[in-house]
Amino acid sequence: MTRLVNDCFSNASEMITVQEARKLIADATIPITTTEIIELYDANNRILAQDIYSTLNVPPANNSAVDGYAFCFADHLKNPATPLDVLGRSAAGQPFDGNLNSGQCVKIFTGAVVPAGCDTIAMIEDTRLSGNTVLLPQGLKEGTNCRLAGEDIRKDSLLLTKGTYLRPQELGYLASIGIKEIQVSKKLKVALFSTGDELNEPGEALQSGKIYDSNRVILNSLLLGYGCEVYDYGIVPDEFETLRSVLEKAAEDVDLIITSGGVSMGDEDHVKAAVEDTGNLHFWRIAIKPGRPLAVGQVANTAFVGLPGNPVAALVCAMQFVRPLIASLCGDTSFQLPIPITGTAQFSMKKKPGRREWSRGRYSIDRAGKPIVEKYFTDGSGIVSSLIWANGLIELAENITEVKEGDPVTILPFTELFR
Questions:
Q1: Which letter does DSSP use for residue 309 in this model?
Q2: pLDDT by residue (tens digit) across 101-151?
């Protein structure tokens, strides 16, 4: 099945905005519908492929929020100054199974089932025990310290919907109703390769005029964090026929092809032409920095993204555009763009209007307890060390032309962008 609908896109040669690019991707993407049943313990970072309804109440019975004494509030009101006889005890997993009469109570522990006929619990530190009787404090309200059955989850209620991204909290939610296995979308299969005759694999002897390929390591790690199954095609020479052959082979094996390098207009940049020869190039010029040459299209029926060759630009574009595409392909309906932090700029800069820019930044809290944002001293797209220094991307909208020290700026934390 075709993964990107052709007629949703504009002329590939047109320069488009970030918002337009994201909308085109979202509108054109056809989700992959193949699913599998897996153990709940293996479901972190996966996409739920079914609606989940609860088969029971959570908690299943009224239980105590504290250690103390459980009693009937209405009965106690009749003689609030009279000590109650302690009839027994109720512990977690070992409920009291007797019947209480007027003037009686049960010692209870946190998480234990509240005995029948009891509706209120006095904290043990607020009571006075004398022999086998206990004096309760004044001023208690009915229902105090009693957690009601179903107050977390009601039987037959909808817990999670199809398309939910599963995090530890969702998995715990499902475990609380006894679910052991769930249906999820199959992991997205992603082919990854770098192009460029100047590239060496890490570990090889570095030849003259060449550099080590860091892009695949960066992108592989990022894609694994996004829950993908990565197929590494290595370094592919920037030669038309070879690229065409590799693209055709990858399109048979995976759901998405990602390359880095070779999507500019240089004489030795053949990825764009090879994609156009084997499928369609939907757009490749976005008004952004870094990473203007970002190609989105398809090879046969497989979605394709061609990232810039510079490592910083490749990573930034992957976080900004590949992540939403992956969410759309997986049917992740809970995906949302990263939530920015606003802080006071500790830098000044000028910027061209009409394009979105992401600069490497670092946010922290100053001595007054207010968030501040610093900017890396240079914007070079090949400086990987800047990514080590930074903890986020400063986002500057199209209408911004200048930032002065003291201005409010927004920064997207890497913790948001990497998940």
A1: S
A2: 999 999 999 999 999 999 999 999 999 999 999 999 988 999 999 999 999
As a whole number, the mean pLDDT across the chain is 92
DSSP annotation string for 213-257 = --HHHHHHHHHHHTT-EEEEEEEE-S-HHHHHHHHHHHHHH-SEE
3-state SS track over 53-94: ECCCCECCCCEECCCEEEECHHHHHHCCCCCEEEEEEEECCE
How far is 53 from 149, CA to CA, in rounded Å? 17
Residue 8 pLDDT greater than 80, yes or no: no
Cβ of 240: how many Cβ atoms within 10 Å? Answer: 13
Give CA separation, 293 vs 5, 264, 285, in Å: 21, 6, 5
CA-to-CA dists, residue 291 to 25, 116, 284, 319, 378, angstroms: 17, 67, 10, 12, 16
Concatenating the DSSP letter of every residue in 402-413 gives: EE-TT-EEEEEE
For residues 358 and 286, is the Cβ–Cβ distance under 8 A? Answer: no
Kindly report the number of other CB atoms within 10 A of residue 250's CB atom: 25
The encoded tokens of residue 46 equal 């996966």
What 3-state class would DSSP assign to 272?
Answer: helix
pLDDT in tens, 300-359: 989 999 999 999 999 999 999 999 999 999 999 999 999 999 999 999 999 999 999 999
Closest CA to 275 of 253, 307, 299: 299
| Domains of the chain listed by start with CATH number | 6-34+187-330 (3.40.980.10), 39-54+160-185 (3.90.105.10), 63-147 (2.170.190.11), 341-413 (2.40.340.10)
In whole angstroms, what is the distance from residue 195 CA to residue 257 CA? 13
Tokens linked to 277: 């020869």
What does the block give as tokens for 276? 């156009």
Cα separation, 259 vs 198, in Å, equals 15
* pLDDT tens figures, 400-418: 999 999 999 999 999 999 9
Helix axis angle for 18-28 and 323-330, nearest 10°, is 20
